[in-house]
């Protein structure tokens, strides 16, 4: 038996994602999959879902920031299991760049839990643009 992801077994979760993509294809919409959504919790869920529909976005891989933590991607997945792929926090904030031990221990625990489909984006080195 595979690990349950947010109330759904992993196979059921994958089928929900597949169903959404196939449904869009049947409607003649080329589904977009956003694999790098930096989630800070500042946009209302309904507004985000409406923007997804307007722009043909089938799935979003949710990379929560350090402030709101990995569990934020689980919450979004629970609300919209066919739209949001849960991932751990991404590593581009102060805790990651300072090698904060508590952050790294929590990240390791989240990764090993089996609740997440992937890890968020992690920066090894960042070159800022003139706009940052």
Shape: globular
Query: Count of helical segments?
Result: 5
Mean pLDDT over the full residue set:
88
Percentage of residues in strands: 15-25%
Tally of DSSP β-strands: 5
Approximately how much helix is present in the residues?
40-55%
Order of helices and strands: EEHEHEHEHH
Structural class: alpha/beta
- Radius of gyration over all CA atoms, rounded: 16 Å
The domain count comes to 1
The low-pLDDT segments are 1-5
What characterizes the major β-sheet?
A: 3 strands, parallel
Distance between the termini: 46 Å
Please tag this protein with its features:
globular, single chain, 17% strand, 40% helix, disordered N terminus, 132 residues, three-stranded parallel sheet, two-stranded antiparallel ribbon, alpha/beta
What is this structure's SSE topology?
Layout: E1 4-5, E2 8-9, H1 10-26, E3 32-39, H2 45-55, E4 57-64, H3 71-79, E5 84-86, H4 94-97, H5 101-112
